[in-house]
Structure formats: C-alpha cells, structure tokens
C-alpha cells in the first residue's frame, strides 16, 4: 500500500489501526456522504475475508474513524456451503455468527485505498 495516514480507533472494544492512503484521504475529503466500511469474516466450508464499502449506514453499530469514514466488523456464516456462492450475484444470505470472544477475532489493521475509481480495502491481524 502507498504511503498512508494511520488513525487509531476502537472497533468492538479492540484497538484497530486504520491505514488510509493519501489518494483515499483526498477522495474522502471530496465526499458529501460518509463512507461505511464493513469488514466481514465469512465462515462456512472455508474462511474468507471480505470488505464492503457503502454510502448507506449498516444496521449494526459502526465506529467513527473521521467525520466521513466509519468502520465495522461482522463475523458471518451461511446456512449452506457452496464455494460458487461468493462470486457475482450468487452471494448467499448471511447471518451473524454468535462469537463468545468477539474481541479476539476483530482485526488489528484496516487498509483503505482508492484505485482506478473504486474503493479498495483489506484487513489483517498482524503486520508482516
């Protein structure tokens, strides 16, 4: 990721470092609506990380990163396992995964960038 501004916040009671690239920072400054970033950890027959960007606030609580940037974390699962369900418009209906020690699986780092006209993101638990 290019040079970034790092903002510390708390998501689900865990300290998270949000790395915002300079391009993403400029694009956020041009927005009139907040950007909501949802980190999803998908459990089914495999585990998959997903990032979703939206202009619409999610139904669950989001943490305020800046005036126009909010982030949340959601562990989810599907009722059935089909690897092809994650491509295109075949996304299965997801339900919240009840996690006893939720704080333990919240990522420590969120990366936000803006490339080729699209928001890009990733999250991780450790920096390598």
Key features?
128 residues; mainly beta; 5-stranded mixed beta sheet; 4-stranded mixed beta sheet; 9 strands; 7% helix; 50% strand; globular
Structure, described:
The structure is a single chain. Helices cover 7% and strands 50% of the residues. The strands form two sheets. Strands 3, 4, 5, 6 and 7 form a five-stranded mixed β-sheet that branches. Strands 1-2-8-9 form a four-stranded mixed β-sheet. The longest helix has 9 residues. The radius of gyration is 15 Å and the shape is globular.
Number of helices: 1
Taking pLDDT < 50 over at least 5 consecutive residues as the criterion, the unreliable ranges are: none
Q: Quote the average pLDDT.
A: 85
Q: Which outline best applies?
A: globular
Along the chain, the helix and strand elements come as EEHEEEEEEE
Overall helicity? under 10%
